Amino acid sequence: MKLTKDFLDMKDQGKKIVMVTAYDYPSARQVEQAEVDMILVGDSLGNVVLGYDSTIPVTMEDMIHHAKAVKRGARNTFIVVDMPFMSYHLSVRDTLLNGARLIQETGAHAVKVEGADGVLSHIEALVKAGIPVVSHLGLTPQSAAVLGGYKVQGKDGAAARNMIKDAKRCQEAGAFALVLECIPKQLAEEISARLAIPTIGIGAGVDTDGQVLVYHDILTYGVDRVAKFVKPYANVNEPIALGLQAYVSEVRNKLFPDDQYSFSMKKEELEALNE
Ligand code: KIV
Ligand code: NA
């Protein structure tokens, strides 16, 4: 299993870091079998697994519940868990208690937090306490309401300069990696070149040190509309719909279960029933 130091080495060696989200036992097993470098138990589970229309309603309990299942399915892969909305803002003490729960109760290896302003001292405290931290800049879904929706960030010079500054501040605070979401590829390349820690892009072009995508988006599983930056590598909605339709139809038409899927008793035993 790779550890934080290995991800720094991968950046230095120019080897891309492959990260994908997982939220339960089967998806964790599958992504481990696919030999990804890192799993993210993203709070995107609010959208793709729990059916909310943002990540705001996701709780500590939700994250712990899902991270435990992921750990059971991927014992040999580095696991990062998102700290949910408002779990790392109130005070350093609250942040430490929440960060500790996410690691201790689930067996995950690191936490991820969005943003820089107001969060840097919390990143520092987590790292000092022994909890590795991944930062997340650009489109940060937990603050989408403040950013003015889900749109590309850092397009103009001032915003781009600010993001470069924030990226450096996250690194200085002790983050060992940085997720960059939905920013121009040129800005992502610039940030990646200026940082010692690896960047992991989603909608940030090919020049980040790694890539991350949401499991359900890669596989077109349960989702129908995806962002521009998502490449659908498979569409499992189709076989799932076909399988379910066939089951429904065979039950209604008394075609299932036929003898192949049924148990029988001997004739004598059957006759004995009527004695
Ligand atoms: O929650 C999530 O899936 C994420 C990734 C999109 C980076 O934070
Ligand atoms: Na997230």
Automatic annotation (TrEMBL):
It catalyses: (6R)-5,10-methylene-5,6,7,8-tetrahydrofolate + 3-methyl-2-oxobutanoate + H2O = 2-dehydropantoate + (6S)-5,6,7,8-tetrahydrofolate. Its cofactor is Mg(2+). 3-methyl-2-oxobutanoate binds at D43, S44, D82, K112. One of its GO terms (biological process) is methylation. It is an enzyme of class 2 (transferase). Gene3D superfamilies: Phosphoenolpyruvate-binding domains. Keywords: Cytoplasm, Magnesium, Metal-binding, Methyltransferase, Pantothenate biosynthesis, Transferase. Binds 1 Mg(2+) ion per subunit. Its main location: cytoplasm. GO terms for molecular function: 3-methyl-2-oxobutanoate hydroxymethyltransferase activity; magnesium ion binding; methyltransferase activity. Its EC number is 2.1.2.11. GO terms for cellular component: cytoplasm. Pathway: Cofactor biosynthesis; (R)-pantothenate biosynthesis; (R)-pantoate from 3-methyl-2-oxobutanoate: step 1/2. The active site is at E181. The keyword Chloroplast does not apply. It comes from the Bacteria. It holds the Pfam family Pantoate_transf. It is found in: Cytoplasm. Mg(2+) binds at D43, D82, E114. Homodecamer; pentamer of dimers. Catalyzes the reversible reaction in which hydroxymethyl group from 5,10-methylenetetrahydrofolate is transferred onto alpha-ketoisovalerate to form ketopantoate. HAMAP family: PanB. Belongs to the PanB family. This is 3-methyl-2-oxobutanoate hydroxymethyltransferase. The gene is panB.
